[in-house]
Amino acid sequence: MSILKHKDLPKWLDKIIYNDFKAIFEPHPQDVVYNPDQPYEFVKIYLGTYFPRSYAESFCIVNNLFENSNYLSSIYTLEEINILDFCCGTGGEIIGLIDILQSELPNLKRINIDAFDANPDAIRFLYHLMESVVTSGNIVVDINLNPQGIFVSSEQELSDLVNLTNVQYHFIVSFKALNEFIQHGTFKNKNTYSLISSYFLPLLSDVGVFILSDVATKLNNSERYYPQILNDGINSIINSGKNEFKTLYPYSCYFNEMTCNGCYMQDVFTVSHSKKMNDVSKVAYRIICRKRFADAIVASDFNQSCRKNNPLADKNLPYNY
Q: Could you list the residue range(s) of the whole structural domain that residue 25 is in?
């Protein structure tokens, strides 16, 4: 199994971001609170700094998912893919996902995307970026964006957003965004990851996956890290008794999510572009799908070769820290 941890930003994309859009590479780890109040100039910094990281994370995560031959074969012949991105920002993960899908699915002819974000400047960047997306063959990419942005400040508004959708998705993604709801106290006395996942997971198709990724930093004024809160939330859904969903990756979670003791996985990806070589991004993520699908993908193909090449596949091993 070949695990991908690095991706170069394509030259055509590099040109659009840094030459056409005048994006700025300027890391601001102390104040990357990407919300509707951020001004236009900050969005340019986000586009130049964090968009490439999200692109690489998305490309690598899905590429590594495709390394499981059972999963790849389940969608290999699809001609149409549906994607939902919650808190899409400037769309790095969307472009990364499009890039890997068109390289791995030879029959793909159409990609439908529903993308939601509260920042209208970020939406505007993404809209114009999608006009220049380079696709191979005759693939049509259709993206649905609200130019005014969609602000979610309550569970009712979350429910209203979900009700805007009427398809089953092959990919639902949310990258490095849900921590902001926790910082702002949007859903008081509720686990944000559990609440939001409970609304989106039922939208998955039978072969759909929900990729929930977030920063691997510590919650302000707390001893807990966001990935620990994420795991608590996802595990509460898995263990709710409905027996409907299950973790597909990390494999440790597939085997141990019923008895999770608070550990978590952190993954490190790098991306290179004209402004920075080997820029580092650290994230934690879970990939969740319908239980029947997870069992078919993991359990039936869980052989000695997989154990030898991927230590996370051994149920007796802990997470990476």
A: 6-313
